[in-house]
C-alpha cells in the first residue's frame, strides 16, 4: 500500500486501528514531495519539521482517544491564509518575507482537529488569475501533463492533491479559484456559501466574493473537511450564525426525488466539444441514478464576466491599498520622498496582473465613473442573484461544465488577459450570487486531461450538492484515476 495515495477517510481508518501512525503517514508524504515537487512545483514553502511535530502531537491525541476525522492527516494550505510563524506570501514579492503573528480561524480549527501542515501551496499572486502563472515564485504544473496549467488561483493546492503531495488542501474561491483548478487537475473542489466558512485571517482580494473551501480526492473527504472548517466565527463580520450539519449524512448512492436544472446559457459556442460531450453524458448518468432533469434559464449569465471584472478589481484596489512599503512587506530601496517610495514599492512589489486589476478597480471607483461602472455592476449582480433564486424554485441543483476547456498549455494565454478571463465564465456567476458549488471529475479529453462537472446549489445547500456529487462519483469512478508522474 502506497500511503500517499490514501484518502482522508481511508487514512483515518488506518490511524484509528493503529495500523499506521501519523508520523509514518507524514514521512510518506515528505518522501513523495521529494520525488515529484521539483517537477510539479505545488508549494511555495515546505514545513517538514512543523509537519513531523504536528504528526507527533496527532499520535499523542490518538493515544489519548481524542481523535477527529482530520487527526494526523497531512494537508497543504493555500498561501493566502495566515499561519502563525509560517511565511504567508500571497505568491507576491510585496509579501515575500511576511510571517503572520496569528492564525486564520480556519487554520486554527484544522490544528485543533489534529491536522498536519506540510506547507503553503503556490497560487496566482493575491489570488488573481486562472492558471497559477502569475506567481512571483514561478508557475505550478499540472500533474496530468507538466506542460499544462493546473488552473488558478488555487493551482498549487489542486496540483498538490492530484500529485499525492498531500491528502487534501485548502484553497480560496473568488471567481472560480477552487473549482476551475479542481476541474483541471481531476479532483473535487468545493466553494461553500459566502459566510459559511470564516474569512478571518484570509488575506483579501475581493471581500464580497472570497470564500475558503476544500480540495480533495473524493466527495467524502470534502464532507469531512467541511465538518471541521464550516461554522460561525464572531471574528468575521461576514460569517453567518447558522447551524452546521454533518455533511457525511448527505452521502447517498441514488438521486430519487432530486431535480437537476440544466441552464441553456451554459451550453453555447466556445465550449470544447469534448467538454460538452462529457458533461452531457454526466447529466444522463445523473438521470440513470434517479434524478429528474429540467431545462432552466439564467438570463443574465452573459453579463457575469463583465460584472465580475468591475466588482472584483474595485474591491482589490481598496484591499491592496494597504501595501504601501511602510507598515510591513516589501519596500523599495530607491531613495526619495514619501510619495516616490509609495510608487516605487508598489511598482516593484506587485506583478503585472495585480497592477492591471488595481488600475481597473481604481478607475471603476473614481469620481465621475463610479455610477457608470461599479454601481451599475452591483445592480446587475443583484439580477444574477435573482436568476438563481428563481431557478431554484424548480430544481434542487444546477449542473454545468466547470470550465469551457480542459487545462491549456503554460504560456498559451498569459499574453491575452481577456482570453484568460474567459476560463472562469461558468464559475463567476456563483460567486456573484454568494451560493455554493462544487467541481467533480466527469471525464477526460482525448489528450488525457481531466474535465470537470460543476454542481451548483442554493444558499447553504452544500449537503445537497454533496449528495449529487457523491452518487455520481460512486457510479462512475472518475475520481479514482491518478496521474502517472
Descriptive labels:
single chain; 485 residues; alpha/beta; Amidase signature (AS) enzymes; globular
Task: Flag low-confidence runs.
Answer: none
Please tell me the overall pLDDT.
97
End-to-end Cα distance: 17 Å
What is the element string, with H for helices and E for strands? Answer: HHEHEHEHEHEEHEHEHHHHEHHEEH
Account of the 3D structure:
It is a single chain. With 485 residues, the protein is α/β, with parallel strands linked by helices. The chain is 38% helix and 12% strand. Among the domains are: 3-256, Amidase signature (AS) domain (Amidase signature (AS) enzymes); 302-378, no CATH class. The chain is built from 15 helices and eleven strands. It starts with 7 loop residues before the first helix and ends in a 9-residue tail after the last helix.
Show the helix and strand layout.
Elements: H1 8-16, H2 22-40, E1 43-46, H3 48-63, E2 74-78, H4 105-112, E3 116-121, H5 155-162, E4 168-172, H6 179-185, E5 188-191, E6 212-216, H7 219-229, E7 259-263, H8 273-288, E8 292-296, H9 304-319, H10 338-349, H11 352-365, H12 371-391, E9 397-401, H13 417-421, H14 428-433, E10 437-444, E11 450-457, H15 462-476
Helix pairs in contact: 2-3, 7-15, 9-11, 9-12
Q: What is shown here, in short?
A:
This protein is α/β, with parallel strands linked by helices. Helix content is 38%, strand content 12%.
Amino acid at each position: 500500500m502506497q500511503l500517499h495515495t490514501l484518502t482522508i477517510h481511508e487514512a483515518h481508518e488506518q490511524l484509528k486501528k493503529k495500523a499506521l501512525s501519523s508520523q509514518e503517514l507524514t514521512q510518506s508524504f515528505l518522501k513523495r514531495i521529494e520525488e515529484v515537487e521539483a517537477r510539479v512545483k505545488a508549494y511555495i514553502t515546505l514545513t517538514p519539521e512543523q509537519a513531523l511535530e504536528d504528526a507527533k502531537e496527532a499520535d499523542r491525541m490518538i493515544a489519548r482517544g481524542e481523535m477527529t476525522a482530520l487527526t494526523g492527516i497531512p494537508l497543504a494550505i493555500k498561501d493566502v491564509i495566515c499561519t502563525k510563524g509560517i511565511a504567508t506570501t500571497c505568491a507576491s514579492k510585496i509579501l515575500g518575507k511576511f510571517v503572520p503573528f496569528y492564525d486564520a480561524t480556519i487554520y486554527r480549527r484544522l490544528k485543533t482537529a489534529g491536522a498536519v501542515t506540510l506547507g503553503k501551496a503556490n497560487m496566482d499572486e493575491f489570488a488573481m488569475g486562472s492558471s497559477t502563472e502569475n506567481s512571483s515564485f514561478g508557475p505550478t504544473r499540472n500533474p496530468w501533463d507538466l506542460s499544462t496549467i493546473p488552473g488558478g488561483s488555487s493551482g498549487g493546492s489542486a496540483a498538490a492533491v492530484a500529485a499525492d503531495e498531500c491528502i487534501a488542501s485548502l484553497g480560496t474561491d473568488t471567481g472560480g479559484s477552487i473549482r476551475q483548478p479542481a476541474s483541471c487537475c481531476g479532483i473535487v473542489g468545493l466553494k461553500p456559501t459566502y459566510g459559511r466558512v470564516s474569512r478571518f485571517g484570509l488575506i483579501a482580494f475581493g471581500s464580497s466574493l472570497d470564500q475558503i473551501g476544500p480540495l480533495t480526492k473524493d466527495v467524502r473527504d470534502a464532507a469531512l473537511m467541511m465538518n471541521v472548517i464550516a461554522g460561525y466565527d464572531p471574528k468575521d463580520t461576514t460569517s453567518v450564525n447558522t447551524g452546521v450539519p454533518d455533511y457525511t449524512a448527505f452521502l447517498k448512492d441514488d438521486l430519487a426525488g432530486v431535480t437537476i436544472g440544466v441552464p441553456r446559457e451554459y451550453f453555447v459556442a466556445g465550449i470544447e466539444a469534448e467538454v460538452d460531450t462529457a458533461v452531457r453524458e454526466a447529466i444522463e448518468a445523473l438521470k440513470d441514478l434517479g434524478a429528474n432533469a429540467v431545462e432552466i434559464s439564467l438570463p443574465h449569465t452573459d453579463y457575469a464576466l463583465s460584472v465580475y471584472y468591475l466588482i472584483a478589481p474595485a474591491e482589490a484596489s481598496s484591499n491592496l491599498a494597504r501595501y504601501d512599503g511602510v507598515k510591513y512587506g516589501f519596500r523599495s530601496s530607491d531613495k526619495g520622498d514619501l510619495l516616490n517610495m509609495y510608487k516605487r514599492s508598489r511598482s516593484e512589489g506587485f506583478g503585472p496582473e495585480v497592477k492591471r486589476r488595481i488600475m481597473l478597480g481604481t478607475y471603476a471607483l473614481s469620481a465621475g465613473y463610479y455610477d457608470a461602472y461599479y454601481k451599475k455592476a452591483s445592480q446587475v449582480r443583484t439580477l444574477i442573484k435573482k436568476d438563481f433564486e428563481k431557478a431554484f424554485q424548480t430544481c434542487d441543483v444546477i449542473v454545468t461544465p466547470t470550465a469551457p476547456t480542459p487545462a491549456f498549455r503554460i504560456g498559451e494565454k498569459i499574453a491575452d488577459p481577456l482570453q484568460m478571463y474567459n476560463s472562469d465564465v461558468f464559475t463567476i456567476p456563483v460567486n456573484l450570487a454568494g451560493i455554493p458549488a462544487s467541481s467533480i471529475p466527469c471525464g477526460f479529453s482525448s489528450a488525457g486531461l481531466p474535465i470537470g462537472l460543476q454542481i451548483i446549489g442554493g444558499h447553504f445547500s452544500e449537503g445537497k450538492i454533496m449528495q449529487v456529487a457523491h452518487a455520481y462519483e460512486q457510479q462512475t469512478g472518475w475520481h479514482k484515476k491518478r496521474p502517472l508522474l
